[in-house]
Design goal:
Blueprint (H helix, E strand, L loop, with lengths): L1 H15 L5 H22 L8 H22 L3 H29 L3 H4 L34 H24 L6 H24 L6 H22 L3 H25 L1
Helix pairs in contact: 1-2, 1-6, 1-8, 2-9, 3-4, 3-6, 4-7, 6-7, 6-8, 8-9
């Protein structure tokens, strides 16, 4: 959800830089501030005593779990192939960070993930580095594609983008050369993943049409989080954010008219 909020906010920044409609820019500025508050609420759920490597395990567990779930449900064979392809690499990222965590901090990643996600080798990271042009994919058509396919391309792009940005920011904070090399290597693979996934998204919508899809994606995700959450405190946060996103969705629909 952190990544989804960042994507929506950053898309809105880009949209504001491509319009001279002052009223529209004011509406987007107000919405962006709300989204930044939402993102901070989510970010601050992070445990205060969690180390950088432990936090990294959370990112890679999410990558594995989310990608596998989206691939399992995906009806579009081409999109599913892209998800399956990157999933093998996400497994290996989780495995390599798990090794580093045990080596540096004596913590077993299996305990952190509650044995929910299997920590196992995937496609070796040395084989992940491709020519940038080979990561480009064919886009879907959101007007003819299944709604869940459109949502899947937006959800996974936001998630991988957040992971990429995280690694780009924390690589310099790693405390030894081995850790820095690993973060650097995987950060560049995440760039490949973001390229693959963003290219699957429909590029033909207008700025406002695409903004509507962003809001719909957030509504879907917050609703999903609310429906499955078991912690009452966090469930209330999902509900609050869902209500906010529904209002954003309605406002964007009005602007689109």
């Amino acid at each position: 959800m952190n990544g989804t909020e960042f994507e929506a906010n950053w898309f809105c920044h880009q949209a504001a830089r491509h319009t001279n409609n002052t009223d529209l820019r004011r509406e987007m500025a107000a919405k962006r501030m709300q989204e930044k508050n939402q993102q901070l609420d989510i970010s601050l759920l992070k445990p205060e005593d969690e180390s950088q490597l432990e936090h990294t395990i959370g990112y890679e567990q999410l990558a594995v779990d989310l990608t596998a779930e989206l691939a399992k449900r995906e009806k579009d064979f081409y999109v599913k192939k892209a998800l399956d392809f990157a999933l093998l690499e996400d497994f290996d990222h989780l495995y390599r960070y798990a090794d580093l965590l045990e080596m540096r901090e004596g913590v077993l990643a299996e305990q952190l993930v509650g044995k929910y996600t299997e920590v196992m080798p995937g496609r070796p990271t040395v084989a992940h580095h491709r020519h940038p042009m080979d990561n480009v994919r064919r886009p879907i058509n959101s007007k003819s594609a299944d709604t869940m396919t459109t949502l899947a391309t937006m959800i996974i792009t936001a998630a991988e983008q957040q992971t990429m940005n995280y690694y780009m920011n924390v690589t310099t904070l790693a405390k030894d050369s081995l850790s820095r090399k690993l973060y650097r290597e995987i950060a560049l693979v995440e760039e490949e993943h973001v390229t693959q996934y963003e290219d699957l998204m429909d590029p033909c919508g207008s700025w406002l049409e695409t903004a509507l899809w962003h809001e719909y994606t957030e509504c879907y995700l917050y609703w999903s989080c609310y429906m499955t959450e078991t912690d009452d405190y966090i469930k209330a946060l999902w509900e609050k954010n869902y209500v906010i996103e529904v209002s954003h969705l309605h406002k964007t629909a009005e602007l689109l008219k």
